[in-house]
Amino acid sequence: MLEERLGYRFKNRAFMEQALTHSSRSGQANNERIEFLGDRVLNLVMAESLFRKFPDENEGSLAKRHSALVQGRMLAIIGAILDLSHFVNLSESERLSGGAENENIISDAMEALLGAIFLDGGLEPAREVILRLWGDNITTLTEAHQDPKTELQEWVQARGLPLPEYEIVDRSGPDHAPTFAVEVRVRDYDPVVAEGPSRRQAEKTAARQMLIQLKVRP
């Protein structure tokens, strides 16, 4: 169940149901307002956590860390780990068009869930859920990491695992503007696929997303 994955049990499940209801479901209370609230809750919790964990960093460094932690891609990855695509309430047409796998829809639902937890239980339960789901990313994720492939290699070597494996799984688009899809595999963990305008960029993006996943699931 989703509540078990979140580590939070709702007293009023209507908050959770609304948080998972996309605006395509006409006639039902959707998650747009709760998403607005969840965005503010997430920003506050992350800002406070970074302020306390990095007392010697200046505003600019804290802002970069904060931006990386609350960006839509990060929310979508957390949502994918929670398997939100199986829980979001979409219209039939939206689901048929692939809405359940849409990163924006998943990240919005993730923010809405945080808002729902805040409404249901207050700031402290919301803080506990956020800090647990984001895990080690809070202290390690920063835009200063320019070479995620090297960081991923160091991560697996420190744990006695084989080196990551990268494979091109798709190439699309015209020759002058191709899009590469690369899969990165780390033993004992789910593979990650990411795209980029070159093989190198796709590998770096895949490595960065894998690092986020690994730090959520140590």
TrEMBL record:
<feature type="binding site">
    <location>
        <position position="111"/>
    </location>
    <ligand>
        <name>Mg(2+)</name>
    </ligand>
</feature>
<keyword id="KW-0540">Nuclease</keyword>
<dbReference type="InterPro" id="IPR036389">
    <property type="entry name" value="RNase_III_sf"/>
</dbReference>
<dbReference type="GO" id="GO:0008033">
    <property type="term" value="P:tRNA processing"/>
</dbReference>
<dbReference type="GO" id="GO:0004525">
    <property type="term" value="F:ribonuclease III activity"/>
</dbReference>
<feature type="active site">
    <location>
        <position position="111"/>
    </location>
</feature>
<keyword id="KW-0460">Magnesium</keyword>
<keyword id="KW-0819">tRNA processing</keyword>
<feature type="binding site">
    <location>
        <position position="35"/>
    </location>
    <ligand>
        <name>Mg(2+)</name>
    </ligand>
</feature>
<keyword id="KW-0479">Metal-binding</keyword>
<dbReference type="Pfam" id="PF14622">
    <property type="entry name" value="Ribonucleas_3_3"/>
</dbReference>
<keyword id="KW-0963">Cytoplasm</keyword>
<protein>
    <recommendedName>
        <fullName>Ribonuclease 3</fullName>
        <ecNumber>3.1.26.3</ecNumber>
    </recommendedName>
</protein>
<dbReference type="GO" id="GO:0010468">
    <property type="term" value="P:regulation of gene expression"/>
</dbReference>
<dbReference type="GO" id="GO:0005737">
    <property type="term" value="C:cytoplasm"/>
</dbReference>
<feature type="domain" description="RNase III">
    <location>
        <begin position="1"/>
        <end position="122"/>
    </location>
</feature>
<keyword id="KW-0694">RNA-binding</keyword>
<dbReference type="InterPro" id="IPR011907">
    <property type="entry name" value="RNase_III"/>
</dbReference>
<dbReference type="GO" id="GO:0046872">
    <property type="term" value="F:metal ion binding"/>
</dbReference>
<keyword id="KW-0255">Endonuclease</keyword>
<keyword id="KW-0699">rRNA-binding</keyword>
<keyword id="KW-0378">Hydrolase</keyword>
<dbReference type="GO" id="GO:0006364">
    <property type="term" value="P:rRNA processing"/>
</dbReference>
<comment type="function">
    <text>Digests double-stranded RNA. Involved in the processing of primary rRNA transcript to yield the immediate precursors to the large and small rRNAs (23S and 16S). Processes some mRNAs, and tRNAs when they are encoded in the rRNA operon. Processes pre-crRNA and tracrRNA of type II CRISPR loci if present in the organism.</text>
</comment>
<dbReference type="GO" id="GO:0003725">
    <property type="term" value="F:double-stranded RNA binding"/>
</dbReference>
<dbReference type="Pfam" id="PF00035">
    <property type="entry name" value="dsrm"/>
</dbReference>
<keyword id="KW-0507">mRNA processing</keyword>
<dbReference type="GO" id="GO:0019843">
    <property type="term" value="F:rRNA binding"/>
</dbReference>
<comment type="subunit">
    <text>Homodimer.</text>
</comment>
<dbReference type="InterPro" id="IPR014720">
    <property type="entry name" value="dsRBD_dom"/>
</dbReference>
<comment type="similarity">
    <text>Belongs to the ribonuclease III family.</text>
</comment>
<keyword id="KW-0698">rRNA processing</keyword>
<dbReference type="GO" id="GO:0006397">
    <property type="term" value="P:mRNA processing"/>
</dbReference>
<dbReference type="GO" id="GO:0042802">
    <property type="term" value="F:identical protein binding"/>
</dbReference>
<feature type="active site">
    <location>
        <position position="39"/>
    </location>
</feature>
<dbReference type="InterPro" id="IPR000999">
    <property type="entry name" value="RNase_III_dom"/>
</dbReference>
<feature type="domain" description="DRBM">
    <location>
        <begin position="147"/>
        <end position="216"/>
    </location>
</feature>
<feature type="binding site">
    <location>
        <position position="108"/>
    </location>
    <ligand>
        <name>Mg(2+)</name>
    </ligand>
</feature>
